[in-house]
Amino acid sequence: MSLLSTMRASASALTAERARMDIVANNVANINTTRTDTGGPYKRLQVVFSPDRPQTFMARFAAFFGRAEMPRGVQVNRIKEDTAPPKFVYDPTHPDADASGFVQYPNVDIVQEMTDMMGATRAYEANVTVMNAAKSMAMRALDIRA
Amino acid sequence: MAITPIYSNPPMPGAISPLPAPGAMGPGATGPAAPTAPLAPTSDSKLVGGTPSPASTDFPNMLKNMLGQLNDLAQQADGLAAKAAGGEDVDLHQLMVSMDTASLGFDLGVQVRNRLLEAYQEITKMSV
Q1: Is B78 helix (H, G, I), strand (E, B) or coil?
Q2: Which of A9, A72, B36, B99 is deepest in the core (most CB within 10 A)?
Q3: A6: helix, coil or strand?
């Protein structure tokens, strides 16, 4: 039943956007974190999405001959640290200040995080809309000659 | 490149396929007959005049199988709802999707039953 595959694709996107939202929340929560286990300030995290394709041997075999199976939505491929340099703020009284009085603050930009958050919210909404449309299509099908 | 999903989706309930999937039989259904070498036509197949088909593809089994799958969908939704109510970490959308899928599957089952009943009544009204 292809309705379920639509639902599955949209549901995977919902999960992925939730993950993105989690990461944004984590970034904003750590916006002033100057100390981590690995030393240095917190580094901004980014999610990387990739299409969720069937990973079976037969799927690869079919894809090799240009007969790809139906994709199954999206997945969070990995969560990556942003390598941008930290922000240096002069604050000699801070416990994490270096010898010259500078404190390294995370490379989190609040404006960018807010944009990401809105993006995740809107994408979530869009996928809910797709799912509702798929469901109303199925309901219409059940109305046939009812 | 190896793709390692980090946030993986929980497996969705299986599709309601009209053909019984091997190993996904409903309760009480017998397993699908193993594919055997072409047999000599039995009296059964002579009756319908077709080729012998596996026992699991006949209509009652198909129906039983479908009902079993619908039951699985409903139970999955139930389980998720119970988990969510119990304060476990359940994705809200997964809960909603599985409830929706179960309700859609139920609607489909009701429609199938309506058609069956219609056909039955049509036959009972037939004058011999």
Answers
A1: helix
A2: A9
A3: helix
pLDDT in tens, chain B (128 residues): 445 555 555 555 544 444 444 444 444 444 444 444 444 444 444 444 445 555 557 888 888 998 999 999 999 999 999 999 999 988 889 899 999 989 999 999 999 899 989 999 999 998 87
Q: How is residue A42 written in tokens?
A: 């917190």
Both tokens assigned to B66: 């479908």
What is the C-alpha separation between B47 and B42, in angstroms, rounded? 9
- Residue contact A50–B3, C-beta within 8 A: yes
Q: Structure tokens of A143?
A: 């109305």
A102-105 vs A87-90, strand pairing mode: antiparallel
Mutate to test the interface with A, among B66, B91, B93, B98 (most CBs of A within 10 A): B93
Alpha-carbon distance of A6 to B15, in angstroms, equals 11
Which residues make beta-bridge pairs with A50?
A75
ipTM at complex level:
0.72
